[in-house]
């Protein structure tokens, strides 16, 4: 009785399994057909949906590894204040570029493109796109030069040939990010730093000297002028020192048509070295106040 009753159930179960097995095989065959679908076919290269997905996964994995390495280096820099931050930044970028290059080569292999085939393809693209690719390659190489040459590093205050001034925030593959004192971000192609004239105000030392010209009426006591100018320098919080070789100096510069012209030369603190216009205005303000307090006429 039990065997006779179980037979229809077993038959239904076997039929269900057969249907599921057929559906699974059909799904697998459909997926295989999709993955083997050719997106590009030439005499040298055949790119399928599957190889393209695999290449994308390789690049995503490469980016994740690069992000983890950069995060680890960033944490190391924060835990070790004594480490040279500029060198750490250079190491960070170089490792990132090397990982990207390795990931790209592996992705090309997955796509079935050997380095030789890729070189031929890149050469053809280079001829087709002309100077556009040359400019990109030039900026990339210039970026590597900047990272290894150490003539420019993150945190430097620079002035470009075009007159742009600002702090270097990042040196990227194509361009360097500069932030001006007005908090404006400017992307400058890396090649401009290599081929153009660049003034690095903080390359060797963050401290620098500013020269503030001013004039007084003829007949004014020079020693009184010097005293008033030094008092003005002492009032400005950006003056580096009041004594020694880095103390402020007052120079007699010229005999003008209507005034005796002086220069107040002052060494600035690191903070002030990056704010040229605002600092000059601060010294002029205090010079005007101090000269008037001493009864010195300003023509």
Plain-language structure description:
The protein has helices spanning 2-35, 49-79, 85-110, 115-129, 131-149, 190-195, 222-235, 276-293, and strands at 38-41, 46-48, 157-160, 165-171, 175-179, 185-189, 198-200, 209-216, 249-255, 260-267. The chain folds into four domains: 2-35; 46-129, Helix Hairpins, CATH 1.10.287; 151-200, SH3 type barrels, CATH 2.30.30.60; 209-293, 2-Layer Sandwich (Alpha-Beta Plaits). The strands form three sheets. It has a five-stranded antiparallel β-sheet. Strands 8-10-9 form a three-stranded antiparallel β-sheet, with helices on one face. The chain starts with a helix and ends in a 6-residue tail after the last helix. The protein contains eight helices and ten strands. 55% of the residues lie in helices and 18% in strands. The chain is α+β, with helices and mostly antiparallel strands. The chain is elongated. α2 (49-79) runs antiparallel to α3 and α7 (222-235) packs across α8 (276-293). β1 and β2 form a beta hairpin. The model is unreliable at 1-5 (pLDDT under 50). The longest helix is centred in the first third of the chain and has 34 residues, at 2-35.
